[in-house]
Amino acid sequence: MDVNCALKLSLLFSSLLVASAGNFYQDVDIMWGDGRAKILNSGNLITLSLDKASGSGFQSKNEFLLGMFHMQLKLVPGNSAGTVTSFYLRSQGSTWDEIDLEFLGNLSGDPYVVHTNVYTKGKGDREQQFYLWFDPTADFHTYSILWNPGNIVLYVDGRPIREFKNLEGFGVPYPKTQSMRLYTTIWDAEDWATRGGLVKTDWTRAPFTASSTNFNYNACTWSNGVSSCSNSPANPWFSQSLDLTSQRQLKWVRKNYMIYNYCTDTKRFPQGLPLECSVINKKQQ
């Protein structure tokens, strides 16, 4: 897909989000940070800050069981090595489900890394990492999570970067029974985030601040064990999957910007790659 077409899709995607954006006072609770998280601009903006004492974060008031979620983020500028800004869904308990987009800070001038993972019943180890193809600190960009019965898709500005299909028929667990809240946080991960922990956080540059706006979702809310839209084929996202254009976009991202894929890491899994990797490889043959 050419650049002009990609730009048009990105602008269309963003305009749809702005038209139906929510309000942070109504949609989220600040969960930690002791004043480091601030709701501004009449509820249209949240800033999250990190210093040596603490990070900060917020969570959605609602719990969800399946949906389409969007957030616009502007990441920490300059030397942000050791910091992580996260946008993710997570359930509670020791056997939790989780869908992660984590943005790993960098030395000034280096590209940001997007660290992704999917947990089912407390088990993850499904990391894929990508470089971003733009400066995510210069302006807001839209990051999205599609979570439906058939697949999980992670998007950047409407462009898919990762797909995790429901392969329960092959014995692969899939997160679809536990309700999750949406979270956005900033925290210190200097022990692993930048070049495996080789580059430490420069605390003289603190506080490190990321911003969130235009939180938008179309999802099934979950309350007292009841879904607001149980089995809702009328919602387009409920059965949404990647069409041919989106599949080409995904291949473009994987070819040009993927830097780690657990499904090719035979050193990490000497006894054999995870089951879903084998299933995917067979399907692609």
Descriptive notes:
The chain is α+β, with helices and mostly antiparallel strands and 285 residues long. Helix content is 16%, strand content 38%. The protein has 4 helices and 16 strands. It has helices at residues 3-19, 24-27, 244-257, 275-284; strands at residues 28-32, 37-40, 45-50, 56-60, 63-74, 83-90, 98-104, 113-119, 128-131, 141-147, 151-156, 159-165, 181-188, 208-223, 226-227, 258-261. The strands form 2 sheets. The protein has an 8-stranded antiparallel sheet. Residues 1-20 have low confidence and may be disordered. Belongs to the glycosyl hydrolase 16 family. The active site is at 98 (nucleophile), 102 (proton donor).
Describe the secondary-structure layout.
Layout lengths: L2 H17 L4 H4 E5 L4 E4 L4 E6 L5 E5 L2 E12 L8 E8 L7 E7 L8 E7 L8 E4 L9 E7 L3 E6 L2 E7 L15 E8 L19 E16 L2 E2 L16 H14 E4 L13 H10 L1
Antiparallel strand pairs: 1-4, 2-3, 3-14, 4-13, 5-10, 5-14, 6-7, 6-13, 7-8, 8-9, 9-16, 10-11, 11-12, 14-15
